[in-house]
Amino acid sequence: MIGTGLDNKVLSILEEKIQLIKTDTGAIYLVGPIRLPVNLDGETVTFQWYSWLQTEEVTEDYKQIIEKLSSSNLAEYQQSSVLVYGDFQYEADALIRMHSICHTGDIFGSKRCDCGFQLKQSMKMIVEKGTGALFYLANHEGRGIGLFSKAMAYVLQENGYDTVEANLNLGFVDDSRNYSDAIQVLKALRSQPVTLITNNPKKLEALKNAGLHVNGRTPLWGDKSEYNEKYLQTKVSRSGHLEDGGTGI
Question: pLDDT (tens digit, 9 = 90+) per residue, 119-134?
Fold first, then answer.
């Protein structure tokens, strides 16, 4: 079915929920908040959901942007999003999780990594805190190498390579993830300090270098098993993840 374009009623509804964030290379269009009831361990918890789209085009003519999307199959690309809980804009402190998409762990519940556990545990921690946001970063699969390359890396891991060695032998760096778009969205949603849920000092560094006020970090370890023991050891020994359980930066 071919669309007939936006009428004024549809446009007025969408304009209330779209925000333009200008960047050095173009713009980020942020849509939301959208009420999202989530099943969290059998309990329904309501988050506010946003998604964003990066473009080189900068315009406040949202009709022009939206109508162009119909000629681009965005389903073939992945857009990132963020789940917000509580009074995120004004509360004095909030928990933040920058979570990289993991198709195998988050969706299938793979035990080869701890990603699925970290996703759900972060959401629980944010709800328990009362305020926070989980950024779900869709272009971070395999620490930035993509799903197909991650599958090849898994083949190498089944033949004795660790996660870092597998990426390097495929011609990639160990970790090519970039947090700049998520940080721009975070700045648009909140100006108060944040506490980052992470074991990865690179994430802390990215937020600090962007001028954000970071109160500290909350570690996130768990779900260790025979299947991911080497993976977790490599995070610490090769990728510099922090294992001490401390709260300081």
Answer: 999 999 999 999 999 9
Sheet bearing 95-100, strands edge to edge: 18-23, 26-40, 43-55, 81-85, 132-137, 95-100, 194-197, 214-218
Q: What is the pLDDT of residues 140-175, one digit of tens each?
A: 888 888 888 888 888 888 888 888 888 888 888 888
Catalytic residue among 106, 114, 162, 175: 175
CA distance 177 to 137: 9
Residue 177 a catalytic site member: yes
Instruction: Tell me the domain boundaries of the chain.
Output: 8-140+177-237
Q: How far apart are the first and last CA of the chain?
A: 53
Instruction: Looking at the structure, give the CATH architecture of the domain made up of residues 8-140+177-237.
Output: 3-Layer(aba) Sandwich (3.40)
Q: Amino acid identity, residue 83?
A: L
- Catalytic one of 97, 112, 177, 217: 177
Give Rg (Cα) of the chain: 19
The pTM of this model reads: 0.86
**Residue 49 forms beta bridges with which residues?**
34, 83
> Is residue 61 annotated as a catalytic residue, yes or no?
no
- Predicted local confidence at residue 246, as pLDDT: 41
CA distance 109 to 51: 23
What is the rounded CA–CA span in Å between residue 95 and residue 153? 32
